[in-house]
Amino acid sequence: MQERYIEFTSLITSLYRLIQKIKSTEMKEIGLKGNQVQCLYYLFYEEEGINAKNLSNLCNEDKAAISRTLKDLERKDYVYLVRKEEKIYKNLYRLTEKGKEKGKYISEKIQLIFEKAGDSLNPIWRNNLYKSLHLIEQNLKNIEKEVN
User: Fold this and answer.
1) pLDDT value for 27
2) Is-contact 40 106, C-beta < 8 A?
3) 3-state DSSP of 3-15
4) Which of 9, 17, 26, 89 is in Cβ range 3.0-4.6 Å of 53 for a Cys bridge?
């Protein structure tokens, strides 16, 4: 059991760090940070716009961090405020034309990287991998509820 724990946590941590390093290196070229990349990526696929609350769920980040990121992206003319709400986290944002260009670039980069990363996986293995990860995530969420 100890070997499984060590192998699992080491692999997950290594994958996360590698993704962060690749993201950081690739996006430095275009002057963006990790949270900005995530926000632009999700906004690219949400043509009707998205708010900080929903973005925070998609990015697994807190709403305050996402709100700051959206403000940074607004200053850089990548996003604009569509509709101001009473609660700031519900303000609706969309990509500007400049933001759409960056979003497309980011989306294409991510697609290329994931194609290379999963190149040796056949579709059945990939499907089983994701099913397994989702099951493990759900089990860990259940355990978290029990201990809290």
Assistant:
1) 81
2) yes
3) HHHHHHHHHHHHH
4) 89
Residue in the block written with tokens 């946590």: 9
Model confidence at 19, pLDDT cuts 50, 70, 90, reads: confident
Look up residue 74 and give its amino acid: E
How many whole angstroms separate alpha carbon 45 and alpha carbon 111?
A: 14
Which amino acid appears at position 110 of this protein? Answer: I
The H or E element containing residue 110 is helix 97-117
Query: How many residues does this entry show for the chain?
Result: 148
What is residue 85's predicted lDDT score, i.e. its pLDDT?
Answer: 67
Beta bridge partners of 94: 80
The reported pLDDT for the residue numbered 26 is 82
The whole-angstrom separation of Cα 67 and Cα 89 is 7
State which amino acid sits at residue 96: T
Q: For residue 127, give the DSSP letter.
A: H
